[in-house]
Amino acid sequence: MASKARTLFLVSLLIMAAVAVGPMAAEAQLGIISGLLGLINVHGTVFCTANGNMGANGTATPVFPNAGVQLQCGGTIISTTTTNAAGIFSILLDPLRFILTTLLNDCSVRVTTPLSTCNATLPSVGGLLSSPLQFVGDILVGLLRVTQLVPTGFNLLPSNSNNN
Ligand SMILES: *[C@@H]1O[C@H](CO)[C@@H](O)[C@H](O)[C@H]1NC(C)=O
Ligand SMILES: *[C@@H]1O[C@H](CO)[C@@H](O)[C@H](O)[C@H]1NC(C)=O
Fold first, then answer.
1. What is the per-residue pLDDT across 48-67, written as a single tens digit (0 to 9) for each?
2. Where is the signal peptide (predicted)?
């Protein structure tokens, strides 16, 4: 799957980066490599509904493809991406740069494309969706520990406000 391939690609990059760090005490290198054997994956699905969440029809609910998605922490945009044809987005973060509790307490996911883009009967203004994150577990991909964070749910915001 695309996200797995991307993850494996990132792992190779990380290992290459660790190897490229140059002459160093063996134990220091080990420390760096074990620190790098992890990633944080903020992912989820955006649905084409009035609140962006799954509707009564479960997985048959229409999704929101090609929607701009931002990860914001304390009002700062950390990363942006776009949902794929299945409405799925995924943002990979380096755990050496982001602390889990900070991500859970200060960060949210925003959909920047108006809902009217996927369904003309839905709002064309104030279409921003926001959601805090929750931890749903770790997945091992080879040696890599991938910490899974997902939105707890989306809300339709009345305006283009920029608070969390
Ligand atoms: C659920 O699916 C049925 C059958 O396709 C459809 O008639 C109904 O409108 C759907 N309900 C929602 C809330 O999407
Ligand atoms: C568009 O949204 C309206 C209102 O939520 C809904 O009734 C309709 O079924 C949606 N159309 C499609 C193609 O999903």
1. 999 999 999 898 999 999 99
2. 1-20
Gap from CA of 31 to ligand 2 centroid (Å): 52
CATH of domain 39-156: 2.60.40
State whether the beta carbon of 55 lies less than 6 angstroms from ligand 1. Answer: yes
Count of alpha carbons within 13 Å of 96, Cβ hemisphere only?
A: 9
- What is the per-residue pLDDT across 62-115, written as a single tens digit (0 to 9) for each? 999 999 999 999 989 999 999 999 999 999 999 888 889 999 999 999 999 999
Closest CA to 82 of 116, 51, 43, 138: 43
The tokens for 86 are 């299945």
> What's the gap in Å between 50 CA and the centre of ligand 1?
14
SS (H, E, C) 50-89: CCCCCCCCHHHCCECCCCEEEEEECCEEEEEEECCCCCEE
For ligand 2, say whether the CB of 75 is within 6 Å of any of its atoms: no
pLDDT of residue 1: 47
* The model's pTM: 0.75
- How many angstroms is it from 69 CA to the middle of ligand 2? 22
